[in-house]
Amino acid sequence: MVFSQLSLLYEDEFVKIVVDEHYKQIQLQQRRNQMEYQSALARDKELDLLYEKLYEEKVLGNLTDDRFKKLSEKYEDEQAELGQRLKHLRQIVEEEQTHELNADGFLQLVRRFTAPTELTAELLHAFLDKIVVYQKERIQGETVQRVDIYYKMIGHVELPRITRKESEAYQEAFGRKSGQSA
Q1: What separation in angstroms does the CA of 151 have from each of 1, 19, 102?
Q2: Sequence-ordered list of residues with C-beta below 8 angstroms from that of 30, at least 6 positions apart, any chain
Q3: What is the pLDDT of residues 6-55, one digit of tens each?
Q4: What are 61-106's pLDDT values in tens digits?
Q5: How far apart are CA 91 and CA 95, in angstroms?
Q6: Burial of 137 from C-beta contacts in 10 A (0-12 / 13-18 / 19+)
Q7: For helices 65-98 and 21-59, what crossing angle results, to 10°?
Q8: How crowded is the C-beta side of 122, counted as CA atoms within 13 Å?
Q9: pTM for this entry
């Protein structure tokens, strides 16, 4: 069964496949990255305050020149490293936000291109983000080559293999025919 047929016949089930554990893991990682970014921002502000206090202690005569120099270099080095880390984390967070899963948008796209008669450049550009082709392997005397397809808005989705018998059982169980919604 082709991808668009699966999504058309079993739209609700298709959405469940798309928004499965993989999506939950993506959201969890996004939250972790956002928290790490916020934590790094807080530390950056804290370093500014520490440096100000350090300067005040120096002005008040509570610190020697050597101690001031040592501590200020330490804080400046940490802040420089933190600046690089913040830049990297900001880039990751922004990328994750632009690639966030959008099942509704993807389903609208599927509906637009349901039952194509030919594979066109427009169809490929509309659906596909990238295709990863792996090196050929010999497994039990058979040559196989893994290909991962990453769809726009939803990423890589492992679709279950459905036999004709299973397809008929789904149609009977869910009471739908091609083009109908639940």
Answers
A1: 17, 14, 11
A2: 93, 96, 97, 100
A3: 555 565 566 666 655 556 667 788 889 889 999 999 999 999 999 999 99
A4: 998 999 999 999 999 999 999 999 999 998 888 877 666 656 556 6
A5: 6
A6: exposed
A7: 160
A8: 7
A9: 0.47
Rounded Cα–Cα distance for residues 1 and 162 (Å): 7
Rounded to 5 degrees, what are φ and ψ at 156?
-85, 130
**Residue 178: both structure tokens together:** 């091609």
Residue 65's contacts (CB-CB under 8 Å, 6 or more residues apart) are 58
- Which runs of E-coded beta strand occur in the chain? 128-133, 137-139, 142-144, 147-151, 155-156
159, two tokens: 């679709």
Which amino acid would we find at residue 104? D
